[in-house]
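Could you join me in thinking about how sequence relates to backbone shape in a protein? To get us started, please write out a protein record for me. Would you write everything just below, so we can both look at the same thing?
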Amino acid sequence: MRAKSVTEQARRAQIVAAAIATIAELDYAETSFKAIAARAGLSSTGLISYHFRNKQELVDVVFADVLERFQEFVRARMGQAGAREELRAFLVANIAFLREHRADMVAFLRIRANAAVTDGGIADSDRAGLADLLRQGQQAGEFRAFDPDVMAVFVLAMRNGVVLRSGSLDLDVCERELVAAVDLMTRS
């Protein structure tokens, strides 16, 4: 397999960016090569087909791209002393990424809900990682007694709800209220 030229890499990136914006605006089901080509300013859907065999391949690339950037962004803000501070850092980082990359997150969640993407078990991994953090907080006496697996589901559901409804919401208020709600839910 030959290496892609700089021009080909740029065109692929342009198509991925247009796919993200299109999925975020139109929803997954309405997203087509035609709609993506129009958003990207391409003269033909053939330019997309040259780089991606079909919608599923493009969606897989979009999903992986957003996931990688999101994980790097959140990881860079983690590493706090104590489970309570780490949980707060996680929530704030999630909202910060959303603030800077709303369309990416909306597209990501819509793809995850509607497409046959291979997410490598990321949903289970996220829930398990958060549940482990909650267990650590319980063991350290920072959090009250609750089922960490169930609480992780609740916290992630609230985060995902903010992502999907964020267009009309003040994200500063969302961040403050999400952190406060999770603090109240977990406080000893």
